[in-house]
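User: I need a structural model of Protein Wnt from Gallus gallus for a docking pre-check later this week. Nothing fancy, just the predicted structure tokens so I can convert them on my end. Input:
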Amino acid sequence: MQGAPCRRPPPRGLPQRRRRPQPTMTGPRLALAAALLCSCTSPVADANSWWSLAMNPIQRPEMYIIGAQPVCSQLPGLSPGQRKLCQLYQEHMVFIGEGARSAIKECQYQFRQRRWNCSTVDNTSVFGRVMKIGSRETAFTYAVSAAGVVNAISRACREGELSSCGCSRTARPKDLPRDWLWGGCGDNVEYGYRFAKEFVDAKEREKNYVRGSEEQARMLMNLQNNEAGRRAVYKLADVACKCHGVSGSCSLKTCWLQLADFRKVGDLLKEKYDSAAAMRISRKGKLELVNNRFNMPTQEDLVYVDPSPDYCLRNETTGSLGTQGRLCNKTSEGMDGCELMCCGRGYDQFKSVQVERCHCKFHWCCYVKCKKCTEIVDQYVCK
Ligand SMILES: *[C@@H]1O[C@H](CO)[C@@H](O)[C@H](O)[C@H]1NC(C)=O
Ligand SMILES: *[C@@H]1O[C@H](CO)[C@@H](O)[C@H](O)[C@H]1NC(C)=O
Ligand SMILES: *[C@@H]1O[C@H](CO)[C@@H](O)[C@H](O)[C@H]1NC(C)=O
Ligand SMILES: *[C@@H]1O[C@H](CO)[C@@H](O)[C@H](O)[C@H]1NC(C)=O
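Assistant: Understood. Predicted structure tokens for Protein Wnt:
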């Protein structure tokens, strides 16, 4: 990141990155803070992101006072463009936070058995410095976060939570049987997609990078992965129907567009992670394949520009937390196996007591009664 153009300091009066708002800050100190930001030696300053909306509870819309702006200036992690969108669409912010939260949860589920397990490290940078590396893991994180926003906003529209959108206006699918009704209130995935594009991509689009530079490569990578995430939600949204008619005869159906379960979006993006394409920046400022025997990625695919660190050891520079103390599976040969998880450092065994429901009996009518059984199981943690 050496020689990176200095980032513009945040506008006056806004909370400094990675700092609590300090209303008493005077001019010179503010300038000093800006100068520190501009030294470009601390990559963490830029790890700050709208993801932090997931970590800091946002007031519900009814708490907003129309015309009052402080909400947006107090939210941490927004870029200048995102702050403007916040002012225009204040009531959306709660749902962006919700989307980010479900994205983090999904990321942690998908990566629970891997060395990098998508853990959050703090409230401002959320995932920490590892996101400075343009790795596959970073690619997944951007994609799933963008997907989370599409998901949350699309649903909020359907639920009538936002004044600027309502039920989906998707046209009736051509292959829907004629006597089925099209017209239930569907998730507004078109609006969710468009809004997420505006909001999530804003940060990438507001800077001008030198053509062919590392920074430009990373910007193009982020944009591509954001798009892949949004498209995953769009693609998986499907028609859902409900039966009507005499006592469940289902002679009549009403159908609408419905988002897929977010787990499915996570699964699809995890597949995309496994097949992500390694790219590099050309002198003309386009991403190109490192190995051109492969197919060019489509807009649904993930791309990355840096190799992944091995995430084995704790490393302050890369932001890797390391795998010391992680549980591993002694018999598995996968990434969750002790050999790979512990990077060959070995592991400690300990006994742990697990309580489970057992000897469950069905009682007429209608409940199930179980006993509690305790079992002592061997567990393994990485050295
Ligand atoms: C993040 O913020 C929330 C709410 O403000 C707080 O409860 C939590 O302890 C914070 N976590 C960290 C790691 O600072
Ligand atoms: C941390 O990672 C960097 C970059 O891979 C490497 O150069 C450095 O030696 C590592 N530091 C430690 C303490 O392992
Ligand atoms: C993820 O990894 C970190 C660092 O190794 C660890 O502290 C944390 O407990 C892990 N989280 C889960 C859910 O395993
Ligand atoms: C460990 O891995 C083996 C083989 O993949 C699997 O059958 C077993 O269920 C795993 N154990 C745990 C506790 O996850």
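Before docking, keep this in mind: The radius of gyration is 24 Å.
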